[in-house]
Amino acid sequence: MTDEGRLELIGVGKTYPGVRALDEVDFDLRPGEVHVLLGENGAGKSTLIKMMAGVHRSDTGEIRVDGRVVRFNGPEDAEKLGIATIHQEMALVPQLTVAENIYLGRPPRRFGVLDRAALRRDARAILDRMGLSLDVDAVVGELGVAQRQLVEIAKALSLNTRFLIMDEPTAVLSRSEVDRLFSLVRELTAQGVGVVFISHLLGEVAEIGDRVSVLRDGAKVGERPAGTDPDELVRLMVGRTVDAQYPPREAEIGEERLRVRGLTARGLLEDISFTARAGEVVGIGGLVGAGRTELVRALFGADRYDAGEVVVDGRRIPPGDIAAARAAGLALVPEDRGGQGLVLGASVAENLGMATLSDNTRGGLVDLGRQRERAAESVRRLGIRVAGLDQPALTLSGGNQQKIVIGKWLQAQPSVLILDEPTRGIDVGARAEIYELINELARAGNTVLVVSSDLPELLGLSDRVLVMADGRLRGELDGAEATQERVLALAVSADSEGNDDA
Ligand SMILES: Nc1ncnc2c1ncn2[C@@H]1O[C@H](COP(=O)(O)OP(=O)(O)OP(=O)(O)O)[C@@H](O)[C@H]1O
Ligand SMILES: [Mg+2]
After folding, report:
1. Which of 56, 68, 162, 196 could form a disulfide linkage to 82, CB 3.0–4.6 angstroms apart?
2. What digits encode the pLDDT tens for the residues 476-490?
3. CB distance 43 to ligand 1 below 6 Å
4. Residue among 175, 171, 193 nearest 184 (CA)
């Protein structure tokens, strides 16, 4: 077989202070295939990708492109060989426009001068190819996470790509955007491009993959065809079988804890009313863009609203007042956990302790022993892969950072906890543990609101499901009547009424 169009990593390894992130890993990518990388949070997937992208140098082994050994001194060297990478942490410049980000560092020039018209035109052409109606002049910092991810993908496509490497590209996309991404991937592989793809969703492996490599604790533990039974893949990843995904629970529903009346934010939310009671887990379903994140941000006081009220345990919370919301016992685990939930420079223990600071304080001093004890408990239960409690959050893998943000709020035992897409980017083993922690919180008489685009998760977790579309509440389904079909039917109901101009 010719080595033309092949990317190979042979015996590569990487040690960070205190962590052997990768050990003697072999990986290869053939032209026209999709090679999926699977592994738990912290298994070493992103580290492997960063070697292919020239971001990290491996301590051992070698990398070959087209059969020749290469040495990357930086990402530019990898890009020159046609390796385009979409990293897990988004790398866009928030102050620049969509078009400027797509052509960052290599804008089209005419007579040595930036050619703005060409920049916008070329960017538009790429977005059209992706079937996106995104405004090329929009400022990236003002876009939602899904749109920002799509700009990242457009940027990778604008390069002359022979190898496309994607680290959890679908984690923030809705189903229709995933469909579009996959059809683009198929177009590229038909042209001979090789694709590396990371996802925690096993359904996507069979759908888009050809081969799967599984990493566990920095070592490659197996390689299989993509059609392999998901249970076997999980076993390879976790080293054991994972039990029932949704732990059953006896809901003991008590007094009303949360009341939302006529909540309206012009152009975003329209007259939303519902209540939630002690012991209840209420799911919020709907398509991306339905207004779910806007709703929970408004409830928590992160965004202002124009009319309506939010009442927690009988106390009315003034609009846009996070301090008041928190004092009333409300907590929000945001969708964009990297940006909003974590202090990157602080340690694992400090981050985990942030929501319980006052609780862990005795006579004005933080009880560090107690803080560490609780942090250790969260690390154990959520399977957070850390070198130690003092490791800076910045150096954790993407999924482990998310576990910290979730763990911090679960520790705080808020009376009303709102989770926006709680298991996105979280590995299968830890998912079950998060579900169990949500149940414990509800069992203790608290209320949990869960926004999730994962329908089985939404249905498996919730006692009751509210469905939003187009900024409105379209319906409410009780446990037994909530099925995937019914949720979907309500989620697309705005279209059939033809009032999409909100
Ligand atoms: N700069 C760093 N300093 C120290 N340790 C690091 C650094 N970057 C990564 N690590 C560690 O290396 C290990 C592998 O991390 P990596 O990001 O490759 O995991 P991953 O498989 O991509 O996980 P996830 O699914 O959570 O994204 C983790 O234990 C992580 O904490
Ligand atoms: Mg990663």
Report:
1. 162
2. 999 888 998 999 899
3. yes
4. 193
